[in-house]
Amino acid sequence: MSHEREFVSDAQWEKIATQLRRTSKTGRPRADDWQPLNAILRVLTTGCRWNGLPREYGHYSTAWRRLRAWATDGTLLRLWRHLLGSLHAAGKLDCGAAARSMARM
User: Where are the domains of the chain?
Assistant: First the structure.
């Protein structure tokens, strides 16, 4: 499936989707994680207000609650480590450059 307005492409989503935990609860079916993740990235990159998100990102409260849950349960840290590990394995992460940059601060 191709998504029109996205921060996370389909190819990127394939790499990270397995890192997101899906919990089943009774009641309303859980929203797909792709939409809230893109909403979160839109808020973080544009600085827009949660309630100012365009409707194509779903309801803002879903994205906000997902961010809070992912921050609390360690999902964001696990995702970050997974992405950094993938970059390192592919030889696309230069930790030395980051260290040199930090040393100049």
Answer: 10-103
